[in-house]
Amino acid sequence: KNDSDADSCTPQAKKQKSQEANDGDIEGIVCTDKSYEDPNSLTCPGTKLNDFSKSMSSFAVDQVWALYDPRDDMPRNYAQIREIFESQLSLQVTLLEHVKTTKGEQSILSGCGRFEYGDTEIKSHLMFAHEMDHIKSAEEVIVNPRKGETWALFSDWNASWNSHLELQELPYRYDFVEVISEFDDLIGIQVAYMGRVEGYESVFNHAEQYGCIKIVIPPAEMQRFSHKVESVKLSGKEEEGIPFRSFKLNPAAMPRYYHVLEEVVETEIQIKDPTVVHQNGSTKDLPIIID
């Protein structure tokens, strides 16, 4: 099989693929996996809050897009678009690979940092999640979370992940955050934890996690960022019970088991000392808290 055929058989591609057979009409592509839909869907006049699907008209040459990582189908792989084949519903892209900073680094999972150009391949349009804001130079592409975006953090991340593949065990555990500052080379970046709004699977609002809401992630820990989670910011007027400035997150960038894990953690984990007990039983010192 060629790359395009292989990509279209991945779980993520199958989840998104619902296409009308009328002369390659790609406007009918929608997410049809019912397990990803909210039991309480928001209906907002003039706003497609439940539609994060993309058509071929969404793409342009030189854009950098996030692609779904086959390890767990989360959008943390990146590629730059070189050519668009509308009739074939595919794109020629140059893959972006993390610039390794030490000899021991083997496979960096993080969705931010410095990237260099890799192989050029043909990819099905179904493998593309969303466009990424980036800084481009002749040899590198830099991706960092931007203020106002929503991202997933690895809950159990530690610096040893980059040199010890055995520590990168599936399933990965995530915390969801809103980025509330731009990245600073000396300070790092500020984020606010988010928790799910009661009654909605993918509507999130600022909420306390590990004893705090806002924290600073220092530059040395930026690889805690797994992937950007596409979202729509809500006004609170959409429905009764929707908080002001909450977010509707794209379910395709959230693991299926998140809701189950959240309930298990709330009922089983007990914090017995000043350190934070994580979902896999490990402990981690409290992060820098923003007053």
UniProtKB/TrEMBL annotation:
Residues 39-238 form the DUF3444 domain. InterPro entries: DUF3444. It comes from the Eukaryota. It comes from Arabidopsis thaliana. Pfam families: DUF3444. This is Uncharacterized protein At4g27980. Residues 1-26 are annotated as: Disordered.
